Amino acid sequence: MSERQFWIGFSLVSGVGPARVRLLLERFSTLGDAWRAGASDLREAGLDQRALDSLRETRERVDLDGEMARLDKLGIAVLTWEDEDYPALLGQLREIDHAPPVIYLRGSLSPEDEWALTVVGTRSVSAYGRQVAYRLVGELAANGLTIVSGLARGVDAEAHRAALEVGGRTIGVLPCGLDTIYPPEHRNLAAQIIQNGALMSVFPLGTPTRKQVFPARNQVMSGLGRGVLVIEAGKKSGSMLTVASALEQGREVFAVPGNITSQGSGGTNRLVQDGAHPVLSAQDVLEVLNLDRVVHFSAARASLPSMSEHESAVYGCLSDDPLYIDALVQQCGMPVDQVSSALTMLMLKGMAREVEHMTYVRH
Predict the structure, then answer these.
(1) Number of domains comprising the chain
(2) Same domain flag for 232 and 146
(3) pLDDT 10s digit of each residue in the chain, 363 long?
(4) Does the residue 337 lie in any domain?
(5) Does 36 lie in the same domain as 115?
(6) Are 117 and 225 in contact (CB under 8 A)?
(7) I need a labelling partner for 234 at 20 to 30 A (CA). Which of 77, 152, 199, 305 fits?
(8) Quick one: 282 and 308 in the same domain?
(9) Among positive and negative, which fits the CA dihedral 83, 84, 88, 89?
(10) CATH code for the domain in which residue 283 is found
(11) Can you give the pTM of this predicted structure?
(12) Looking at the structure, do residues 212 and 64 belong to the same domain, yes or no?
């Protein structure tokens, strides 16, 4: 049985989130050992009685081989903290507190997704909101930004469609397991997204859409982007929860001003009052995020020398901000000797530079 199956198993256990997974790894080294451990050892590792009961029930109920077979049949890939692709392709998300240990994926991620923007808004979108989403998101996607949204009715769906129409990439983050499309009328849209990006969930197969899952979904949505753009939302809109997550994660918040007499624009107008960046054009977003050269960067990346898997993973963690090697080791989830070796090769290829002792940037 592979170690990946145990990561999947723990994703099915209620009460075992990112913090407890870290504790288990510190105590047992592998989740396979933790899965097989006795109650006393698990209690010492930080699991309370509720989590212990849930783990016991899950071990008795779930066939991990069968679970893996179901995922393979549905074409669903699984990324964990241990996978090189997790930090390499999900660098933004990897940096947030409580980054999900397991991500379920249909479609594919790309290095281009490093430049992503999360777009949210009301489900009851107005004609004005549709027009704004079509124009702004289309221009942003055409400039090379990957558009992240939640596949929901209204602004989310308009954002995905606008990105697809200009041939851009888009990622849909679902509030349920990937064996279900929610809402069901967006099945065709979901299929298009899979061909031009990915559907993503932090929830295992069989997880239904319910109120309790949205906070975790919103954290992932905001964590994937370099900023969050709110196109149209009321003062008590669910989009405000995503904005709250974005602020906690240190992301930029953008809002499209609306009619002051419209309840549907009450939330966006309030965000502008509170200091969000007002957006009147796509350039407003690109300038704040310093992404006005994203197309140039994408073209440059396409011409980069070939990299090994380890080099690609480390390169994905580097940026223009100096990063000490210990931080790189943590972000990449790789042993220090592998990171050091990859850095040496990247510097020889002219793709990385040491700016201070053991501190590196992209070149």
Answers:
(1) 3
(2) yes
(3) 789 999 999 999 998 999 999 999 999 989 999 999 999 999 999 999 999 999 999 999 999 999 999 999 999 999 999 887 786 677 778 778 788 999 999 999 988 898 999 999 999 999 999 999 999 999 999 999 999 999 999 999 999 999 999 999 999 999 999 999 999 999 999 999 999 999 999 999 999 999 888 989 999 999 999 999 999 988 888 898 899 999 999 899 999 998 888 887 888 899 999 999 999 999 999 999 887 655 554 544 455 567 888 888 898 888 877 889 998 998 888 888 888 888 888 876 778 888 888 888 886
(4) yes
(5) no
(6) yes
(7) 199
(8) no
(9) negative
(10) 3.40.50.450
(11) 0.79
(12) no
Q: Domain check: are 238 and 262 in the same one? A: yes
Note down the domain range covering 117.
110-171+208-290
Whether 98 is in a domain gets the answer no
3-state SS string for 132-193: HHHHHHHHHHHCCCEEEECCCCCHHHHHHHHHHHCCCCEEEECCCCCCCCCCHHHHHHHHHH
Residue type (1 letter), 2: S
- Compute the half-sphere exposure of residue 271: CA atoms within 13 Å on the CB side of its CA: 35
